[in-house]
Every structure is written in structure tokens, then in C-alpha cells.
């Protein structure tokens, strides 16, 4: 049995109540002046709750198909970290969550079609001498947006799980023809800041810093994943020593977070209760203008 995606799923048009905003780190609370030239933005209501649920169901179905196409229980493997040279390693002191890797060019293309109006508004289609985004590799170079990485990484955090502060690395395709410069996070559940018990989150964070506690890790995953989502923000911090000076983006159903890989230290805050689901992928670029390639072929 093959995985079928409905033809009308994730149409190019975003819901009518979609909104977007750029994160101005020079005026956030707290302010992070070091990031004043760095890019991050949020889109709210990018997907409906039904679309988020269907996207998650597709990922779980992809992880539930055995080699002989029989349905089994979805397998959320433990997420690993990149250690260079195309290799990964398990390091639960840094990253502790479940992951399903779902390679789907079809879904990536549909998500990009909906994202493109925002990318155009934010001048992301063409990067020319944009070294704040590209680093020194962008000096006197122009990069053109080509696609979203078809490798969609679905992440599942239950009570006690996290991804400690880190910088996202660039992904370079094996033929070295494309490189990524931006991360895209799609939040599939959550109620945003208004749905959080902020006093309890702060209390648990202080406890965690003091004792190194990450949640009720003695309970089963099923027990830890029950209830309302508590914690789990994506936090930008100026340095590891200043993790209490965080600009937070809270999980919210249908929300999207877009930010540059380069020079933005961030992490997935501990989830203290409930379950957090997100999807992560990259925005890919090439030095060759895809429109020029299309014209040459026609």
C-alpha cells in the first residue's frame, strides 16, 4: 500500500486569517542587540488545525509502513545530532526527542507554494552580498531560492524532552549544487503564549537550572505526553551563559518560524508537560537562477 496525498491538500492559498511579522531583535523584550541584523519571522495561521493534523497523520503513516507495505505502529526514532562529514550521533544530553524523517518532494513543493508570498515580501528569493545570512561564502556571490528541502523532519517532544541551544548548520547537496541558508519550523499544535502557564514554566526552568531536572522522566512516555502543553518554546539567546535572556516563540497550531542558519543561537526549550509536534526543513539555494535554467530548456 503506497502513501496517498490528497490532490487538494495544502493548496497554495493560506487561510484568510494568516498574519506575519518580522522579529526585530533590537526591540524585543529582552533586546538582543547582537542579532539586530539577523533575520527571523513568524507566520500565524499558516495552516489550519485540520491541515496540521493531516500532515502529522501522513508522517506517522509513512513511519508505520513496513518493507512489505503492511501497517504497523508508527515508529518515532530518537533524534540524533549532526557531527560533521554527513554523520550523526546520539547525544541525549543535547537533544532528546522523537523524530520521523519523511522525504516528500510533493509536500515540500506544496508548502513552498504557500510560503512564496512571504519569502518575496522578506526578499528571500535572491541573496546578493547578504553575508549576514550567508556568511563569507556569500561575498560577491548571488544565490537564488530553488526549493524547500524535501527531507521533512517531524519532531515529537513529550514531558522532559528538549533540544539544547545550538546553531543550525548549512546543508550542502551531494553534488554541491545547492546549499541551505534558512530554517523553517512548522508548529503542529499548541496554543501560543496565551496557552502557557508562564509562572509554572519559569518555576520549572529555575528548578532545572539548579538541579538539572528535565521533567518527570520517571513516568512513561504516554503519561508524560498527556495534558496541556507546558513549555517547549523555540528560544533565541545571545550566548550559552545568558540563557535567561531568551526571545521566545511559543508553539501554536499552524504557526511557522523562519530564521537564518547563520549566527542565531537557539534551542527547543524543555517540554514540562503534554506533547509538542513540529516539522523542520530548510530553504535551499543555488548560484544558478532556476528561471534562467527553465528558459534555456524551453
UniProtKB/TrEMBL annotation:
Protein name: Prolyl 4-hydroxylase alpha subunit domain-containing protein
All copies of domain Prolyl 4-hydroxylase alpha subunit, residue ranges: 38-284
GO molecular function, one term: L-ascorbic acid binding
Natural source organism: Talaromyces proteolyticus
UniProt entry tagged with the keyword Oxidoreductase: yes
PANTHER family named among the record's database cross-references: FE2OG DIOXYGENASE DOMAIN-CONTAINING PROTEIN, PROLYL 4-HYDROXYLASE ALPHA SUBUNIT
InterPro entries named among the record's database cross-references: P4HA-like (IPR045054), Pro_4_hyd_alph (IPR006620)
Cofactor dependence: L-ascorbate
Entry GO terms, CC: endoplasmic reticulum
UniProtKB keywords: Dioxygenase, Iron, Metal-binding, Oxidoreductase
Keyword Oxidoreductase: yes
